UniProtKB/TrEMBL annotation:
Protein name: Chromate transporter
GO (cellular component) term, any one: plasma membrane
Pfam families: Chromate_transp
InterPro entries (alphabetical): Chr_Tranpt_l_chain (IPR014047), Chromate_transpt (IPR003370)
Topological relation to the membrane, as annotated: Multi-pass membrane protein
Molecular-function GO term, any one: chromate transmembrane transporter activity
Keywords per UniProt: Cell membrane, Membrane, Transmembrane, Transmembrane helix
Record field: transmembrane: 89-113, 119-140, 152-183, 203-224, 297-322, 334-353, 359-378
Cellular compartments annotated: Cell membrane
Family indicated by similarity: Belongs to the chromate ion transporter (CHR) (TC 2.A.51) family.
Length: 400
């Protein structure tokens, strides 16, 4: 009885910890999905050591391959491994809710404000530059330690920058996996740290069945039912289920669903997109803005659940099998290539859009370098780096 109570108390403590940490990340993680992976690496791996670097890299590789919001899926996966299914839910709520509330508020009240051009927002983007540079440096040292892997990473970065399509990322990962399989096929099986996946395979299979079932059934039901709510759910679910390449790629999918149907004007759509760039958290919360513009708080809730549901189902459905696959020697060889490619994909995204849209003047570079030094050498807590970036961005806007 005492052991049961102790386990329940420990589980509740872990769940609460996941919620608190992910909420802090949801309030401070500016800069888009690649920046989010940098924030996660700094908070979950470097600071709290909830996972080792290799397991984190393997999780990122899986989520980069799956359709949907990669950074949110990584967060859900970490939450699941830390505190079970409810931990995954807590991680998603904490990371997503601040952005959802901000965008719904913008939709209902603040449409006349241009917060996207505020000085403090620019400063927060400079924080993202420092965070992502730190993450790439750390992951690069561990995942590309030799000539072959470093070359694969640079090649992946070049391809990602020069061939920009919705399926580029998936193609790079597949090619890197095949190359890794060829180059490292004779490598001795490595003792990979176990991922703690508290999910039964039967649950995982059920989640995958629900994912594909909804993808097929929702359009059929929409065709025979006049329900506006069902049509909304179908549109946002498909957008979340069929997008490869991160948050920005979902925008044209959503535009085709809500503007031609007359649910929203093109002007309102673009206004919300501008606001989504200025708030922390995942870009997929743009769906909350669209839902609020269409049907208030209820619309925001339906749109948010629908667009993120595929991410949940896919992560929970694949994690138990992924932990087994990553231990097979041949798969390990493929993963060596995939992880090198992931570093390259992060490097490409660091250059464009993070660097090109943020470092436009010498003073921007100076502030980003200072923030990087604070983070890497002074070991300053992330919240202090974020505060310094916001203040620095405000000062830059006043000076220029």
């Amino acid at each position: 009885m005492e052991n049961t109570e102790r386990r329940a108390e420990s589980k509740a403590k872990s769940l609460w910890e996941v919620l608190l940490v992910s909420t802090r990340l949801g309030l401070t993680s500016f800069g888009g999905p690649i920046a989010h992976l940098g924030y996660f690496h700094n908070e979950y791996i470097k600071r709290r050591k909830w996972m080792d670097d290799r397991s984190y890299a393997d999780l990122v590789a899986l989520c980069q391959f799956l359709p949907g919001p990669a950074s949110s899926q990584v967060g859900i996966g970490i939450g699941v491994m830390r505190a079970g299914l409810m931990g995954g839910l807590a991680a998603w709520i904490g990371f997503t809710l601040p952005s959802v509330l901000a965008l719904v508020l913008f939709a209902l009240v603040l449409q006349g404000f241009d917060i996207g051009n505020a000085g403090w927002v620019h400063g927060l983007k400079l924080v993202a530059v420092a965070i992502v540079a730190h993450a790439i440096l750390g992951m690069g040292q561990k995942l590309t330690p030799d000539r072959n892997r470093a070359t694969m990473a640079i090649a992946a970065a070049a391809i990602a920058l020069l061939w920009q399509t919705a399926f580029t990322q998936v193609a790079i990962i597949l090619a890197a996996g095949l190359l890794g399989l060829l180059l490292y096929k004779n490598q001795t099986a490595e003792a990979v740290p176990a991922m703690r996946i508290p999910i039964k395979r039967s649950v995982a299979v059920a989640c995958l069945a629900v994912f594909f079932g909804l993808l097929v059934l929702l359009p059929l039901l929409r065709g025979i039912s006049p329900s506006h709510w069902l049509a909304m759910f179908d549109s946002f679910y498909r957008a979340g289920a069929l997008v490869f390449g991160g948050g920005h790629v979902v925008l044209p999918l959503l535009e085709r669903e809500v503007v031609p149907t007359g649910w929203l004007s093109a002007q309102d759509f673009l206004a919300g997109y501008g606001a989504a760039q200025a708030v922390p958290g995942p870009l997929f919360t743009f769906g909350a803005y669209l839902g609020a513009m269409m049907n208030g708080w209820a619309g925001a809730l339906v749109a948010t659940v629908a667009i993120f549901l595929p991410a949940f189902l896919l992560v929970i459905g694949t994690l138990p099998f992924w932990d087994t696959l990553r231990r097979i020697p041949k798969i390990q060889g493929a993963l060596i290539g995939v992880n090198a490619a992931v570093v390259g994909i992060l490097l490409a995204a660091f250059y464009n859009p993070i660097w090109t849209s943020t470092i436009v003047e010498p003073i921007d570079f100076a502030l980003a370098a200072l923030l990087f030094v604070m983070l890497v050498f002074w070991k300053s807590p992330p919240w202090l780096v974020v505060l310094a970036g916001a203040l620095g961005g405000t000062l830059i806007s006043i000076m220029t």
